[in-house]
Amino acid sequence: xxxxxxxxxxxxxxxxxxxxxxxxxxxxxxxxxxxxxxxxxxxxxxxxxxxxxxxxxxxxxxxxxxxxxxxxxxxxxxxxxxxxxxxxxxxxxxxxxxxxxxxxxxxxxxxxxxxxxxxxxxxxxxxxxxxxxxxxxxxxxxxxxxxxxxxxxxxxxxxxxxxxxxxxxxxxxxxxxxxxxxxxxxxx
Length: 188
Description:
By secondary structure, the chain is of the alpha/beta class. It has a single domain, classed as Rossmann fold. It is 34% helix and 16% strand. Strands 2-1-3-4-5-6 form a six-stranded parallel sheet. Helix 3 links the parallel strand 3 and strand 4.
């Protein structure tokens, strides 16, 4: 089975336990190993100043061939970690706070789970000098000549508005996202 790293967003006092950490039990039941990457609670200013430094630390802990599930700012950390040499094989982004045209480099497959009902990543595109953007609301909109990207509309997958991180709040949402991740892995 696969090895997953989970990376939460910023402004999470529980270090992801109420968002991406809620996928851990379901992934482990499927036989996957799961490691939560915790970087503590950070606010907007600190996250802008510390993302690249945090990403270097993450890159140094990743084992080759691993997968990552990243939520919100966790997607920005994933991007920077890969630029720093993190040997992820596959990337699963949930409501990524990334520019919609920003491609994740050097990985085999990227699955983007976006929510048209997500207000926060729509606003993120207006933050100057940042890689943050509306990918979490519209999906990846850049070039995909190699066919590495899979797009999943969370609002359609769950059957209701999921907004930013809402997919984690219900058993139905968590179950459906774990199913979608497993289905993507099974395509290989």
